[in-house]
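Hi again,

Forgot to attach this to my earlier email, sorry! This is the prediction with magnesium ion bound. I've pasted everything inline since the attachment limit keeps bouncing my files.
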Amino acid sequence: MRGVVILGATGSIGRSTLRVIGRHPHLFRAVALTARRDAAGLDALACELEPEFVVLAEEPDPSFRPRWRGEWRVGREALVVAASTPGGDVVVNGLVGVAGLEPTIAALEAGRRLALANKESLVAGGALVMEAVRRGGGELLPVDSEHGAVHQCLAGRPVEQVRRVVLTASGGPFRTLPAERFPEVGPTDALEHPTWDMGAKITVDSATLANKALEVIEAHHLFGLPYDRIEVVVHPESIVHSMVEFRDGSVLAQMGRPTMEVPILYALAYPDRPAEERPPFDPVAASPLTFERPRREDFPLLGIGVDAGREGGVVPAAFNAANEVAVAAFLEGTLAFPDIAEVVSVSLERLERTPLETLADVRRADREARHLASGEVERRAGSRSA
Ligand code: MG
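Structure tokens for the complex follow:
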């Protein structure tokens, strides 16, 4: 029986994890659950699952009266406590944004298995995260369909045997939309993902291809691969989750219907593969499987993000932060869709390049990029309303 800590239990990854755990009660038990501010949602989960404690990252509304009588902890620092709590054999990090970095490091330093869905951890602080793995002896398993696929294709083989990794991208809702029409696109259009059901931030990132840039950086750190050996292809059916081409010319791909529950169970149970009752995969029904080159000119965040990864230091952290600000402004309706990339690009141009050695360096770059991006969002909102 593995104790599972779920950071971000009320979010999309958290709820999928709870469904997986619910189907395997003899294998997994929820020991701690956290939420950012959905106090009522967290309360309901706690009543049902009776964890050891729950964490609310933000102070709840004063009128909030929990029904669950167990231990409540409040504040961001409590996320770190949850990530390293003794009963947590596996920590699922389903937090959104760079807020996930500190709990990631805490779990790995405490020697836990970390099932990492919070890709921002690796993007913003990849070197620090991999250093925490070495120091704490923790185990890092990706909860991202593409990286889960690569992990399965590699099956522990050394990276020297790999010629390259091909990450697949669905292409998002605007894959075939002419770029001239991008200015008309609103949040509801961007949230209509054709194949994956995910949270709002990542769904917009899928529409801009920023998500794929984040995933290239994630793959670079996770598998120790140089950037020129990581390629992106668009695969609208989202059946092939990624491929690994080995140096002997053999290509392995991992396939399946798009649901996050498969990579979540893989990360929780690895190296075991517990039985799941799913309808059999029908290759004929899934056909045809098609692949295209990404429209790099029309979706510039893919290139901007990968270049940020190549540059390294605090630049990937700043890319992530500027993108978070721009996406939030787009979701609020204060920024046009094509301006998400513009805001990120301008912010990175102005960023002061500093080395990345500690968490404080990441935080400083994150703050600076947010400041630059917010200023640019305001400037554009001002010139639009003027
Ligand atoms: Mg993914």
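The longest strand covers residues 28-35. The CA atoms of residues 28 and 103 lie 21 Å apart.

That should be everything now.

G.
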